[in-house]
Amino acid sequence: MGVRNQTPVVEFILLGFSGIPNSHIYLFPPFLAIYLVTVLGNLMIFILIQMDSSLHTPMYYFLSHLCFLDICLSSVTVPKILVNFLRQQQTISYHECMAQLFFLISFTGVECVLLTVMAYDRYAAICKPLHYSHLMSPKVCTILAFATWVWGFLHALIHSALSSKLYFCGAANQIHHIYCDLPPLFKIACSDPHINELVIRITSFFVGGGPFFFIFLSYVFILSSILRKRSAETKRKAFSTCASHITVVIIYFGNGALNYNRPSAGYSSEIDTLVSSMICITPMVNPLIYSLRNKDVKGAFRKVLESQRKLKRHHAMN
């Protein structure tokens, strides 16, 4: 019987947590905590940037986009995981899976390019300080931010269109993953995913490898410029402004490499689940990195708290 004559799949079973007994009891609290910290942490930094005029600079403008993006990225996967824990049934419909796939690819693609733009901002600030206001004018920042989002969604559109052409049939509806992603779907497709895999290899260079190389090159020039500075205090400040971004880049691209550039065999299902869970954790880590290491963010937070105290005292006196 031909592949197309078999019953098409309308629902997938997610087997990522199948090896963990009573996973809904033990994993629901930590995943809920991860999601709450992610949303509240990123939302707090986003609001601080909007409220404090001292943070109205290109660096924090792009950081606000990163915070919003991390909320979106976490919201693509974690809420569905939480709902499935409550239902004690790890399933996702075909259309939900395709939607999750589209937005997951979109937001991860946007973040790759956004981190690259943030690296360029640090390059312009440290290596071209006299031209910084021109290179990173409000108009340029708006265009760059808009371009990152368009790039991410166009990238996702390509993969989603190709994935929608794949045929899933019969009993081939068990995804060994905790959410819908391209490699696990290719493994269970009844039709040949060769073209899809080829497109992933090609686009991964432009969306992953290209941005990472540009970031690496930017920091080569930044490091060279910093080392030429005579003042130790100037060097310290320059390194400090880059430390948070470098940390986020290492975590994000390291996680991407583990997810998409590892051998298809040789890993247990437990390791696969642990690695895939990192995409839920990374958006939580970003606000912690920027708030703990960044004096400007901590200073803005203190100012907001102080203004709130003064406002309460004023209301109490009246």
Task: Quickly list its features.
318 residues, mainly alpha, Rhopdopsin 7-helix transmembrane proteins, 3-stranded mixed sheet, 10 helices, 3 strands, 3% strand
CATH 2nd-level architecture: Up-down Bundle
- Alpha plus pi helix count: 10
What CATH calls the topology is Rhopdopsin 7-helix transmembrane proteins
The structural class is: mainly alpha
| Order of adjacent strands in the largest pleated sheet | 2-1-3
Model description:
With about 325 residues, the protein is mostly helical. The chain has a single domain, classed as Rhodopsin 7-helix transmembrane proteins (Rhopdopsin 7-helix transmembrane proteins, Up-down Bundle), CATH 1.20.1070. It is about 75% helix and about 5% strand. The protein has helices spanning about 25-50, 60-85, 95-125, 130-135, 140-165, 180-190, 195-230, 230-260, 270-295, 295-315; strands spanning about 10-15, 90-95, 175. A 3-stranded mixed beta sheet has the order 2-1-3. The chain starts with 10 loop residues before the first strand and ends with a helix. About 35% of the residues are buried. The mean pLDDT is about 85.
